[in-house]
């Protein structure tokens, strides 16, 4: 009952002219005062309670210090050490000193085992070493660490792109030996295109993998989609023209071949500034892979 009376009294006071728009005699209250009036009027006042002061003993303080130290170590110090090793590895890699880069990358991964970028860097190192030595063991290592990089961050684009290159390098040209690799390309590139569906090169390779596994209609579908997204993609025109030729469809074979030749003729005097453009126009690998 008393609480209700206090509320009504406060509201009555507010309605009589404590608001900023009062307009008739009397002085308006400032914002803070107004808030205090409203708060007092709408709430029961609680009795004051004595608070017991809790003092930590030396043991608790020591434990808190250890906990803070552990949190700092894991959140700041350990990642900093890993970044340091990764940076040393990257610098050595840029100098093409692969033998020096490898232990640095491995040290970074030993500190933070599931870091996608660190794992990707090591995978690329082994991939480049394979391109130099053609040692299949290094290609296996590349695929091993790139697979870990993808699992570390499934939405990261670069590990999927590097894995695609590793898988393409794994193809032997013998259909009976390449079935698993084609399936790997389909799995990897499907994930990759889930991240960036408009990237034409992996879609073309996805189409080729379907074709080599005997899923011809799906292969045609993916290749047409690659051309839809990138109408100047010369190798895709030539590839689908070849497939139509295999079917005995001479009209479509000639149509797609003519489209490729038209693009080549149109841009014959263009000197692409990017590898992407050179690949689109079907320029020799020696022209852009430098």
Summarize the structure.
With about 290 residues, this protein is mainly α. It contains 14 helices and no strands.
Q: How does the SSE layout of this entry go?
A:
Blueprint: H1 2-18, H2 31-42, H3 58-94, H4 98-111, H5 116-133, H6 136-152, H7 157-170, H8 175-195, H9 200-212, H10 216-229, H11 234-247, H12 250-266, H13 275-280, H14 285-288
Helix pairs in contact: 1-2, 3-4, 4-5, 5-6, 5-7, 6-7, 7-8, 8-9, 9-10, 10-11, 11-12
CATH architecture of the domain at 74-168: Alpha Horseshoe
Largest pleated sheet? none
Shape assignment: elongated
CATH class of the domain at 74-168: Mainly Alpha
Distance between the termini: 88 Å
Total of DSSP H or I helical runs spanning 4+ residues: 14
Q: Can you give the helix content as a percent range? A: over 70%
Q: Can you say what the CATH homologous superfamily of the domain at 74-168 is?
A: Tetratricopeptide repeat domain
Rg is 34 Å
**Secondary-structure element series:** HHHHHHHHHHHHHH
